[in-house]
Amino acid sequence: MPLTEHRLYGPPGVGKTTELTRLIGKIVAERGPDSLLVTSFTKAAAITLAQKNEDVDEKHLGTLHSICFHALGQPKIAETHIKEFNEAYPHFAISGGTRSDPDDPYGGGEVSEGSTSADVLFSEMQILRARMVPQLGWPTPVQAFAAAWTEWKYLNDYVDFQGFIEKCYTDVEYAPGTPEIAILDEAQDTTKLEMSLLRKWAEHMDYMMVAFDDDQLLYHFVGARVETLLNPSIPDAQKHYLTESKRVPRAVHATSQAWIQQVSLREPKAYLPRDCEGEVRVNVNPRLTWKNPELVLEDAQPYLDAGKSVMFLASCAFMLDPLKHALRAAALPFHNPYRRKRGDWNPLHASNGVSTAQRLLAYLAPLPGVGGDAWTGTWTHRDVALFGSLLEAKGTFKHGMKDTLKMWASDYAPMTPADWTALFLDDIVAPDFLFDDDEEIYAWLEARMLPSKKAALAFPLEIARKRSHVALAETPQIILGSVHCSPGDEPVFTTNRGYVPIKDLMPDWDHVLSYDSTTNHLCFGSYHGKLANGYKITAMSQHYYEGTMLHLVTDKSRTRVTPNHLIQAKFNETFYEKWMVYLMEKDGWWRVGICTTAHRPYRSGGLPGRLATEQGDGGWILGIYHTRKEALISEATIQGKYGIPGLTFRSSKDRSLDTIDLQRIHAAVSENVHHRALQLLSDFGLCEECPLYKRTTPGTEDVKKNLSGMFLTYAANIISGYMDIPVAPLGFLQGKKNLREKPLWCKVTVNKEQFSGDVYSIDVDKWHHYVSGGAIVHNSVKGGEADCCYLFPDVSRAGMREYLTAGEPRDSVYRLMYVGMTRAKESLILCAPSSNLSVRW
User: Fold this and answer.
1) Is it true that domain 5-71+176-255 has CATH number 1.10.150.530?
2) Residue 310: beta bridge partners?
3) Which of 154, 203, 706, 760, by CA, is between 20 and 30 Å from 835?
4) Are 826 and 279 in contact (CB under 8 A)?
């Protein structure tokens, strides 16, 4: 029985950090700073305690990984040398990232993009180590990976993050500095290995205080378990409870406590609400789901009008995307101050440096309400340096004055008329800031801004125009937060095993046939003995996807892919001599128009010709029609429904409006049109980042610059009936033909379905194509609080599997929703489910 272990239970909002700060201060005053070791699972909690306790030696305060890292003499970190491991053991290659901060070994628990099949083995190995499961009980593939990983670390004298804890547990008898007392904060997310180390060190101390709330355990995915905290049992005299919430009102408290009682294992606690009735609304409207963001915002508007902060919480980040787009369309500022690295949740904030919104505020500095107590009613040199980076140099600044702006970046001296004259061209007159609603203020900036800054400026400019510049300067009331591939059964043709579900491919064993688009030939590879070698799978990844899945169906194949999957295609004979309606984009401007499709024999025109003439950046086909009249009707309908102009970007001869006139019109409406164009693309199942035609080649992908012959495009752009895709002949797949064979080109029909689940992607050596379903396809390579909280009950398919599994898996979902409930300071709105993949309130 750990007689030296005390436990401090801190339910939501009871002031656990305040109590720990008080306790730390008392210990330091009585025993001195060297008597204490303060650690936390999360970097954020350690920083908070450090900021409030300056007397504690930094060597005695931090995450447990950081403390162990220093205790071991700062060994070389294995995770910073992943490339070396992959070269030594290519069959176990992992993505691994470049984490090198022992203060933050889990990186917030986020799964990185572009993971490999071995990443799953690596992750499972780390969890098993954290849970102290003997290696003999590990799955065989994990044991094999662990043997290679351990050998590589030993040969290179590396230690990985989990090894920091393991080596201290086996080799370091006393905590660094031999402290008399240890305090562990946020212990609910501590693994069995970490707790075992701390309990070992605590045997040589007067006592250890472990502070946590088992009901808020969220890091089960790295091996944290409630039984680790609650076992072994300790005497009641060593249990301490903080009982009165300073955040959660009575109604929210009652609902959240009834909810958390459903978990199978927890510490019973006395826990009281704050003296406020509060409000809970449950399923007030069956349409109040994450899929109806306009309705959600309408429901939240009374809280916003009353000056309340409003938090929208979901179990998965993708469930917040519709709301995120609706907030942008309504010019409502939003943020997540607890997850600054999520740029899409913080469009007005830069994780590093100065944001575009802050540069706009620098431009608006002369207006009242900007700059707070430091407001002077004029610009400083720094203000001009900040917003000057948004402006075109040519036609705005005198020669060489951009260098002056760089020197002004830290100069807070007021701007003078002489400074303006020296900096700007003589005909550039400062905008009139006498009236804060004067459109000239924004027109002046827009007329001179760099095209590359237009997209980033669109949202903050819309806020300033619709909500006022003061709204842009204030902390947003709204908080968003979350407590291209193929489905796993999609068959891929291998040269050694025939068709294999993509999820079951073994990159170190399976080889696939491929396709050389430069010569239009399928390739089996060369023969080795009686078998064809095929082509190596150089990378494989897996991640969860929820959204539209496309079925590409021909009379000889059936293939399922996500909309951004690359597909080799060509237009068939039915495409020619018709009319099309298209969407075109240029520097953030959008328009809808019509033109002919293509001609036999060839003559100029069509979408490529229109884009070339107008210097458009990208184009999408919205529909194909037999007559010009049908196309005109469709064009007018789309323009009217979505509010997107039809004016060209450049003028042709004998037109009343010249190119400058047209560009001025597009510049004036572009901020309003952008979100409408995105809605149009979404409704048509198209992707903004995946145009059918693109004037410049994106990255290394060979997206065709014209639409003649074969071209590589995205699955979302495939047009049913009017395009062919290459299909592998059955005889070729059965090995009855030569090692190289031309594919069949078959008319494709596109069907759509909603999909939720894991999807997979592979990368193939040399030709970067493989055969899937008969068709040839290309590589697919806790915190916070608010006055009012909206909580969505939906979970991912993986989350639903946990919810339907009794014990720890289901408990993890209960705790996730409990944490969301207890963020509310006044009102809690438990929204309606959008599907069967939801918990039941």
Assistant:
1) no
2) 478, 788
3) 760
4) yes
Sorted by where each begins, the domain ranges of the chain are 5-71+176-255, 256-339+476-483+782-841, 349-470, 486-569+706-778, 573-688
Strand 535-553, strand 824-830: pairing: unpaired
| Measured distance CA(68)–CA(347) in Å, rounded | 37
Strands (E) in 345-453, as ranges, are: none
Residues with Cβ within 8 Å of 559's Cβ and at least 6 positions away in sequence, in order, are: 490, 551, 552, 553, 772, 773, 774, 775, 777
Give average pLDDT by consecutive 10-residue segment, the chain, 841 residues. 81 88 87 88 59 61 87 92 92 68 45 59 92 93 95 96 95 93 90 94 94 88 85 93 94 96 93 95 93 96 95 89 94 85 82 82 84 68 91 89 84 89 89 66 89 89 89 89 64 76 71 77 64 68 67 86 84 92 90 91 79 85 94 95 92 82 89 86 83 60 52 88 88 67 89 70 72 68 78 87 88 92 96 92 93
Tell which residue, 272, 136, 184, 159, has the closest CA to residue 2: 184
- For residue 630, which amino acid is it? E
CATH architecture of the domain formed by 486-569+706-778: Beta Complex (2.170)
Query: Of 528, 449, 468, 499, whose CA–CA distance to 332 is shortest?
Result: 468
Q: First CA to last CA across the chain, in angstroms?
A: 39
For residues 282 and 784, the answer to whether their CB atoms sit within 8 Å is no
The phi and psi torsions of 590 (rounded to 5 degrees) equal -135, 150
Closest to 622 (Cα-Cα) out of 657, 568, 660, 585: 585
Please indicate whether the domains covering 5-71+176-255 and 256-339+476-483+782-841 agree at the CATH topology level: yes
**Domain 256-339+476-483+782-841 class, CATH top level:** alpha beta
